[in-house]
Amino acid sequence: MAYIMVDVESDGPIPGDYSMISFGAVLVDQQLETTFYGKLKPISDKYIPEALAVSGHSRQDTPTFDDPVQVMTAFKTWLDKVCKDRPIFISDNNGFDWMFVCWYFHHFLGENPFGFSSQNLGSIYKGLQRDMFTNFKHLRKTRHTHHPVDDAKGNAEALLTMKHEMGLKLKL
After folding, report:
1. What does the DSSP 8-state code read for residue 2?
2. Could you say which architecture CATH assigns to the domain 2-166?
3. Of 106, 144, 146, 164, which one is the catalytic site residue?
4. What are the residues whose beta carbons fall under 8 Å from the beta carbon of 139, sequence distance 6 or more?
5. Active site residue 146
6. Beta strands in 41-170, from DSSP E residues, in sequence order
7. What region does 141 belong to: left with phi over 0, alpha with psi -120 to 50, or beta?
8. pTM value surpassing 0.90
9. pLDDT per position in the chain (172 positions), as tens?
C-alpha cells in the first residue's frame, strides 16, 4: 500500500455546486519529496468569497486554471507512477478532502483510483492518544499555509512522527 496525503482547497462546501480550486498530494515516505499539485478551473458559477479567499486565489484567477479532466487525468497518471500497489487516501479532514477528490474522479474520469474509502489523520492521532479531544497539528514541521502541497506535507510529517515516535504501525 502507498499512503497519499491529500489536501484540498475549494470555493464552497460541496463538490458539484462548488468547485475544487486546487489540491496537493504527497507520497508518504521518508523524503516527502514526491508531490502533485493541481489547480482547477471552476465547474460552477457559484462560489463563496470567504471560502475562495482561504486558497489565496481570486475569482478572476481561477478561470485561467487547468481543465478538471486534464488535472484529474494527470493525478491518476501520477498515482499510477508513484504507487506500486493500491493508493491509500489520507488527509487531515478526509470528510471534506475525500468528498471533493472522489467526486471529481468519478465525475470526470468515471473511476476513483483510491477505491471507496479514506483515512483521517486526526482520528489516527486521537486513537493513539486515547483522547477524542486532542489534536495532532503540533506535530507538523512545514508551516500550514493553505497551499495544498505545504499542508499535505505538514500532515505527512505528523503521520511520520506518529510512526517513528509514537509507535504507530505503518508500513511504508
Report:
1. E
2. 2-Layer Sandwich (3.30)
3. 146
4. 125, 157, 158, 161, 162
5. yes
6. 87-91, 119-120
7. alpha
8. yes
9. 899 999 999 999 999 999 999 999 999 999 999 999 999 999 999 999 999 999 999 999 999 999 999 999 999 999 999 998 999 999 999 999 999 999 999 999 999 999 999 999 999 999 999 999 999 999 999 999 999 999 999 999 999 999 999 999 999 8
